[in-house]
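Researcher: For the annotation table, I need structure tokens for alpha-1,6-mannosyl-glycoprotein 6-beta-N-acetylglucosaminyltransferase. Please keep the output clean. Sequence:
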Amino acid sequence: MLNLDHEDFPNCRPKMEWMRDNWETHACYSELGVDGSECSSFVYLSQIEQHCPPAFPSHSNIPPASVIQSRKLEELLLLLSDSEVNYNFIKSRITRLFPKWIQGINELQKSIPNLWNRPRLNLILYLGFLSHETGLKFGEKSTTGGPLGEMVQWADLITSVFILGHNVSISSEWNSFKTKADEYENQGPCPRLDGKQIDLIFTDIMGLRRIKRKKKNFFSSNKCKFRMLDSFGTHAEFNSNAYFKAHSSQIGGKNAWGGHELALQQFLTMYPHTDDNTFLGFVVETYDFHETVARENITVVYGKEKYMWKDSEPILQIAANYTQIHATVADSDEIMPAFHVTNHHLLTGEKFHRLLRGSKIFLGLGFPLEGPAPLEAVANGAIFINPRFSPPKSRKTYKFFGDKPTLRELHSQNPYMERFIGAPYVFTVDIFNQNELHQAFQSALKTNVTPYLPFEWSFLGMIERVDVILHKHNFCNLHSTWPPFEAASLEVASSGVSCQDFCASKGFVCERSFFSKINNEDILSRFSSCNGGFSRASVTYAPAICLLQNDSMLFSCATVPPKEIKRNVISRQKCPPASLLTRIF
């Protein structure tokens, strides 16, 4: 008997009912084996569209997938061809680091023996923020001190998916993307089985907004396949249009970058901000200098544009008491002449790393937030003085975050380094508190550290994460079973504490995909008798004791619930945070 009511396949019965009356509306159904019988429709919905549970062998019309195989640098550079300006920085970084990417993929092959026998995926990468239509000119500014964090992340993602052997199309201009996307577009309602199906689409918020505006059908038919590079992350409160509109007065601000209503794990962040989004990250490049680089009494100030130095005089005064001051400011020849700052102008690659290798301190001024440079400094043996924020910076207190789709509160310039690295490599202090800053310099100068790089920022760590994103994250099939629910540990969080913070305090992480498994009375009743019965609501702190979630889009690890609400916490297996971030998620 056909199982049309499997809990993991809620669309099976309605899809079967539709097929009974409509299988003849397009020839593709009969071409794929549907003949009007219940069994043929079930096979199609199980094996082709995957709306029903597997019950029969795979459909014979499905062609075998090609296997992936390694590639060469020259092939990759040829893919970056739809703009002369946009890819200069990206090409330079890829070329410089490619030998180490080769080393990383060779290391991965040792742990995954069948690496080259897996399906070769069709991937489209659209770097929307570089398009000339945005008017931002990030490609041109990359050589004069413009924001490089996004460039770094895109370069490393491009190299990762390519070196893993997949079929990659890359665009930064709309017309180029449209041409490539059109090649994969379905001409009928059935999935394509000729090898021309899109497996994943990587883009950014600007790219997604343009796709939604200019290719609505393409977006709606491939919504589950999008992966969004989203530097600062997206919270459930901003992802759902209905929720934001209903609660905008409490949340405050606008929602210019949110409202896309994807699964929160489809948003890929620069740092591991929340357990709701997926940590993509980037690689911290390192250099093996053939000669010894002497470490001198130097502070390199973190601020590559002059505006970042505003109000820094009292900070520099203290720094000048202990060390020489060096800078890499691109848009000024002279900075703070009273402090004799040595400005190297914009340095990238080996020259910047040589400067860090010969310095003792890397001093943050509070901006840019969560950039790559502090990790590069620590990887070269310099100690990072990380500005602490009081009050913390968020969309409610800081203009930069005013329209970001997140409620995160940053307690320092780089919260990851504060939380996961810390002393002796990182000293997080109020740089405007003279006593604290004096103590930080004194402690840093008497501390000897060796270069340090956490695994998740290595080439192997990045390739592992990308491989998981490609092969384990599946938001098109409701029955996706990764991570397996057997790995869950169910606990009740303290009042007024988010699931992710509670999990972190126990050495766990919150796994958002598990919420759908426990959003039922049978499981929640284990934690309370609920004599008054269960209620339902569309709120970001459900499921909770005696409270079921009405809207699956609002499942959230990051939301801090009202203090009177107690929440169930779903966690992965206990594991040290650094390896967990890298090897599992």
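Researcher: And a one-line annotation?
Model: DSSP finds 22 helices and 17 strands in the chain.
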